[in-house]
Specification:
By secondary structure, this protein is α/β, with parallel strands linked by helices. Helix content is about 45%, strand content about 20%. The chain has nine helices and 14 strands. The chain has a five-stranded parallel beta sheet, sandwiched between helices.
Length: about 400
């Protein structure tokens, strides 16, 4: 094959079984190398294609590269910064807008700190300078390419697995709801017509069956909500977490006006997010705080924020039962509970839903707690409006 032939390989993992052994062929990695100096095209092919696992397609301008992207599949892009038709940063912005999160490496001789910061802020995965021995630079490039591609493939595989799990969760929950309602209906008929004629031990059994059925229906409802959180489109807008928190807390206070509880909500808690989904997350966190302070003589719930560097983290804090956060490795997994049902009722789905909402927004969430000392849940959300055209993701 001539070096100037451009071939795009789109090969996935292949396993061939023969006798007792299995042979695995590594995925071919297809690279789009964008550089206006033809000399670097030969260097890229010589160094990157040497191992037989990377194929290089070259383009001498961003315009040519954009045509290549329309026609073929690429696992990663390596782009110069200074090009005749547009800068590497402008090309990067185009890629992010039209081709998503394909790994992007900036390869340039313009090594100023401002360029590095601009590249990273616009979504570049790595930044490599041209200066130095070609063998060193292209070895570094190959390492970065492999790392970025493997990371992105793992993310995509995990995303696909999560989608399958969400679909399974929704299907199972939806299919279970109908028979559970039928069981509940027949239980209601039995209680209404024959409850008085049942011996005390049978009455007690019936009450337990009814309670278990109601709990199962509640769990199914929460599972359906959890699956919808992962499947719903995000409708992003500027949202006051202050207002959302006060609405939830005011509602709980109206339902239990006898509770002795001090509530504080910080002013100007603003985020850019999906209002309905974040309302679900805040509702779960605040209902947990309300529940786990129910045995405290003077309960306290606080909603606020802290600043870490240039990032703002929101929090919900209480002085309730708490838990051992050092052992809470599965804190946000469905059905994970740290207190028995007899002490604090619940389904174990709430925190899993909160986690799913925050991660859908690209945020972080963690907890700090000790038994008997309350709990604080920290989370981050975007605080600036996204670019136009990206309000639904």
């Amino acid at each position: 094959m001539r070096r100037d032939q451009r071939v795009i390989y789109n090969v996935r993992n292949i396993e061939i079984s023969q006798g007792s052994g299995t042979f695995r062929r590594t995925c071919m990695i297809s690279i789009l190398f964008v550089e206006d100096d033809p000399g670097f095209h030969e260097l890229a092919r010589d160094y990157l294609e040497e191992g037989g696992e990377i194929s290089v397609t070259t383009a001498q301008s961003a315009t040519e590269a954009i045509r290549e992207l329309k026609e073929g599949h690429f696992d990663a892009i390596v782009s110069d910064y200074m090009m005749p038709d547009m800068t590497g940063i402008d090309f990067l912005k185009h890629v992010r807008k039209h081709h998503g999160d394909i790994p992007f490496i900036v390869f340039t001789g313009k090594g100023s700190e401002e360029v590095v910061i601009e590249a990273i802020n616009n979504g570049a995965d790595f930044y490599i300078q041209k200066t130095g021995a070609p063998a060193v630079r292209f070895t570094e490039m190959e390492t970065d390419i492999r790392h970025a591609v493997q990371h992105r493939r793992a993310e995509n595989a995990l995303h696909e697995l999560n989608r399958e799990l969400e679909a399974f969760c929704y299907s199972v929950s939806h299919d279970l709801r109908a028979p559970m309602r039928i069981i509940g209906g027949y239980l209601a008929i039995l209680q209404e017509k024959y409850h008085a004629s049942f011996p005390p031990d049978v009455q007690q059994c019936m009450e337990r069956i009814v309670a278990a059925n109601q709990r199962m229906e509640e769990m199914i409802g929460h599972l359906l909500r959890l699956s919808r959180v992962g499947r719903a489109d995000l409708h992003v807008e500027t949202v006051s977490l202050t207002t959302l928190s006060r609405e939830v807390l005011d509602d709980m206070i109206r339902q239990e006006p006898e509770r002795a509880i001090d509530v504080f909500v910080e002013e100007d808690l603003i985020a850019t997010c999906d209002r309905d989904l974040v309302a679900i997350a805040l509702g779960n966190l605040l209902h947990n705080a309300w529940k786990y302070t129910s045995r405290v003589e003077r309960a306290q719930i606080r909603v606020g924020s802290i600043q870490k560097g240039n990032r703002r983290f929101f929090y919900v804090r209480d002085n309730g039962a708490g838990f051992n956060s050092t052992q809470a490795v599965d804190l946000f997994m469905p059905f994970r509970r740290f207190h028995p049902e007899s002490e604090f009722p619940g389904t174990g789905i709430g925190l899993a839903t909160v986690y799913r909402v925050i991660r859908r927004h690209g945020g972080e969430i963690w907890a700090d707690s000790n038994p008997g000392s309350g709990a604080t849940f920290y989370f981050s959300l975007p605080t600036r409006a996204p670019p136009k055209g990206n309000t639904n993701t």
